[in-house]
Amino acid sequence: MAGREDGNRQRETQAGQGPAWAEELLEHLRPAGRDVRRVVGWLSGAVRGSVALQDAAGNLMAGTRIPLDEDLVTDITAGRIASAAWQSRERHLRLVRVEHPSHTCVLAVSRETPFDRRAADVVTHTAQVIELLLTARESTAAGHRLRRATSDLRLAILQLLMVEDTIAARRVAAGLWPGLLDADTACVYVVESDPAVRDRIAEECLDSTREDALVVRCPAMDGHVIVVSPRETAGEALRSLVGRHPDIFLGGSVRQSLARTATAYGQAVSALAVAHFRPDKTAVYAERTHPERLMDPQALRAWTARVLRPLDTLPHHTRAELLATTRLGLEFTAVNAAKVLGVSRNTVRARMERVEALLGTDFADLTVRTVVHLALNTQIGLIDAQFTDATADSTLRLSDLLSGPAVRTWAQHLLGRLDADARNPRRTLRTWIAAGGNAERAAQALGMHAQTVREHVRSAEPVLERQLLAAGTDLYEVVLAHLAVGDLDLPVLHRHD
Questions:
Q1: Containing structural domain, residue 131
Q2: Where is this region: Disordered (predicted)?
Q3: Closest Cα partner for 187 from 240, 229, 249, 239?
Q4: Cα distance between residue 361 and residue 419, in whole Å
């Protein structure tokens, strides 16, 4: 009777152990516990032995290395046998094949005592769990690679649009997103969020626009997502997205041709700055009176063609590359322009220096940057206007463009907004521009602290409704106003003016 009681007790213990180790093993399949190394470590403790997981080449993937017979390992990884057992006086060894999506692995377990049924079952089932985990990890990695490749492709399309290569952009997009860029015009939006949640916001942008838009994680600003959409519905979808999140903002451009994507992007960034002060956290670039629209169109185009004529001798591709890079380089810092274009900042600087040399000028001068910016943005419309410089007036100067009554009235009204401030920020702003936007040099000329100069310039931004401390269209318009009223000397483009 005693023997039978002991035997019954032994069977109950063994039966009870089965579910216990099985439940522990299944815990490793939960999302929080999916780690092959942890499973191998658990197996080592469960069978009280050493465990190694290695691939066919002998590389240790998890556990501790165990001396193995190479021929036996080869037989298992080649599929000739599924498992093997081996023993000596010192140890007992069991090997089990573990299938992997890309290659076969071997799970080896070594212990001092023989493998009983429980230990053998634990090893077999653990091999199955490891197989599931490896397959899941490979699928996850493949999905991640696919998402990364798709994201990189979207960025490449945006970079092509930024340099006005719409034909190549359409060809690249057609493979994965047929019809996405079939329209001739589009709006650009910039969604700003905390960088930590940008990936999630980017996915929501894709969902909100139903993938009918080009959604790109901005390579220059960690918290920005750029959305280029030909569809009218995208703006409303993105505004709805912003409404659902307390800490994200949206800036949008007016509709532009695809060739002017870089211009539209600049507009969206400007609108984003305004969105931070709006209750609904969204803003669309305001169509205000731009100085170039107050100039005689034919005269402006003639002047532009003449200013940029030194670049006409270059091959078409080289010329387009230099113009597009310089246009972005004048709107943003060299570092950010490089990130947007997918090139190094040294490449951006080298291209801009080449344009400087061809135009015979110096971009360190803010007035020069302003004038070249005016020419470059006018140049985009030359082909659309079917303009030929055969009609150009070779004697036309920048002063002729700025001396028109409409331009002068606009400039006087704009700068006159600053006259009510007793601190005289207009003088500070003029001196700061003349100093190339350098607060320290302006402070020396004015006899004040550099921080005071910055405060005066910053205080002028809401009055003029333009960003000044960041280079771009807003700043260049204010510089043009100073040139138009004669507060600053006209720059000299040595080859032309």
A1: 2-140
A2: 1-21
A3: 229
A4: 33
CB contact set of 141 (below 8 Å; sequence gap of 6+):
none
Task: Give which of 449, 447, 467, 446 is closest to 458, Cα–Cα.
Answer: 467
CA 158 to CA 180: how far, in whole Å? 12
**Element containing residue 51 per DSSP (H, E):** strand 50-55
Instruction: Report long-range pairs for 137-143 (Cβ below 8 Å, ≥24 apart).
Output: 137/34, 137/36, 138/100, 138/101, 138/102, 139/101
Q: Is 298 exposed, middle or buried (0-12, 13-18, 19+ CB in 10 A)?
A: middle
Measuring CA to CA, how many Å separate 80 from each of 76, 103, 484? 6, 15, 87
* Residue whose tokens read 């299944």: 26
pLDDT tops 80 at residue 484: yes
C-alpha 361, offset from chain centre: 33
Kind plus residue range of the DSSP H or E element containing 235? helix 233-244
Which parts of 28-84 fold into alpha helices (H)? 36-47, 70-77
Q: Are residues 136 and 220 in the same domain?
A: no
How far, in Å, CA of 382 to CA of 391, rounded?
13
Whole-number mean pLDDT of the chain?
86
Residue at which a domain ends, from 94, 109, 140: 140
CA triplet 185, 369, 255: central angle to 5 degrees?
Answer: 15
Q: What number of other Cβ atoms are within 10 A of residue 257's Cβ?
A: 17
Q: Is residue 43 part of a domain?
A: yes
Residue 344 and residue 165 in contact, taking contact as beta carbons nearer than 8 Å: no
Same domain? 364 vs 219: no
The three-point CA angle 413-304-255 to 5° equals 65
CA distances from 27 to 17, 33, 124, 473 (A): 16, 7, 16, 59
For the segment 118-131, the average pLDDT, to the nearest whole number, is: 89
145 domain-assigned:
no
Determine the distance from the C-alpha atom of residue 266 to the mean position of all C-alpha atoms in its chain, rounded to a whole number: 15
The sign of the CA dihedral 20, 24, 29, 30 is: positive
Taking the whole predicted model, whether its pTM rises above 0.70 is answered as: no
Question: What pLDDT, in 10s, does the model give residues 459-471?
Answer: 998 898 888 988 8
